[in-house]
Amino acid sequence: VNQVANLTLVSSACDMVSTAYASTKESHPYVRSLCDAAEKGVKRVTEATASCVQPVLTTLEPHVAAASEYASKSLDKLGEKLPLLQKPVEQILSDTKELVSSRAADAKDAVS
Fold it and tell me: What processes does the entry annotate via GO biological process terms (predicted)?
């Protein structure tokens, strides 16, 4: 999970969503009330679940470690094959707009 969260694409997307969420909460008092209530509910459920799940996680720890190692290696390979994962969302959007604009200009020139 940490390795995925540290991918530039994922972390920049999370930052964008977090900023939008905070801005929306700040701008709309009714939405803020709903979000605050939802956050408290999620926190309570998480705390209750954590205590119940901990014994199961302890039992499964060797299997989780093996799965984590496999996932980590797979993510490394994926990162090599998809360099896009190392770019921030803003750059991907900018590059995509540039590419589409260039292709549209090429198509326009070809039609002319």
Answer: lipid storage; positive regulation of triglyceride storage
The pLDDT assigned to 53 comes to 87
Cβ partners under 8 Å of residue 25, min gap 6: 31, 32, 35, 36
pLDDT of the residue at 42: 95
Residue 97's pLDDT is: 94
- Distance between CA atoms of residues 78 and 70, nearest Å: 12
Tell me the C-alpha to C-alpha distance, in Å, between residue 22 and each of 6, 9, 18, 105, 109: 21, 20, 6, 39, 45
What is the phi-psi region of residue 41: left when phi exceeds 0, alpha when psi lies from -120 to 50, beta otherwise? alpha
The pLDDT value given to residue 54 = 85
Cα 36 to Cα 58: distance, rounded to the nearest angstrom: 32
Q: Which residues contact 21 (CB under 8 A, 6 or more apart)?
A: 35
pLDDT under 50: residue ranges of the chain: none
